[in-house]
Amino acid sequence: MEWSLPVSGELFQDRWLIDATEPHRRGGNGVVFRATDTFGEFDGHLAVKVLENYSRYRRFRREVRLIGECDHPNIVGVLCSRLPEPHSDDSLAFFVMKWMVGGSLAHRFNEGTAVETPSQAVALLLPIVD
């Protein structure tokens, strides 16, 4: 299989323009790029998460499925996805979500900026557990 990750400033999958001003971020199952939709179906900045290593394909596919099952105003949903089976063609598996300013919750916890007190933790998590 011959493919490579998107490059800043390039058009990924003939649709998603990868933002050259925002560095990509690595997650547990892939690499996240900020992009815009050149088709105009989705407005604003978007997060395009691309599977970097097909050994994690099952986890990546499960992530897409689980996010898709969440229907809550405080959880960012999947707008679209492409999940070709490993070795089925030359395309990367990816999914698209709205871009959230401030990074992931995991990133905030790792940097120690998510919460300083128990009441801040409750205020941060309560909206998603109602």
List the secondary-structure elements in sequence, H or E. EEEEEHEEHH
Number of helices: 3
Distance between the termini: 44 Å
| Mean pLDDT figure | 86
The major sheet is characterized as: 7 strands, antiparallel
What structural class do helix, strand and pairing data support? alpha+beta
Outline, from the CA principal axes?
Answer: globular
Radius of gyration: 16 Å
List the uncertain runs: none
Corresponding CATH superfamily of the largest domain: Phosphorylase Kinase, domain 1
Helical percentage = 10-25%
Q: How many strand units? A: 7
Number of domains: 2
CATH topology of the largest domain: Phosphorylase Kinase, domain 1
CATH class of the largest domain: Alpha Beta
Give a description of the structure.
The chain is an alpha+beta fold. It has two domains: 11-99, Phosphorylase Kinase, domain 1 (2-Layer Sandwich), CATH 3.30.200; 102-130, no CATH class. Helices cover 22% and strands 22% of the residues. It has three helices and seven strands; from the N terminus they run E-E-E-E-E-H-E-E-H-H. Strands 1, 2, 3, 4, 5, 6 and 7 form a seven-stranded antiparallel beta sheet that branches. It is globular, with a radius of gyration of 16 Å. It starts with 10 loop residues before the first strand and ends in a 5-residue tail after the last helix. The mean pLDDT is 86.
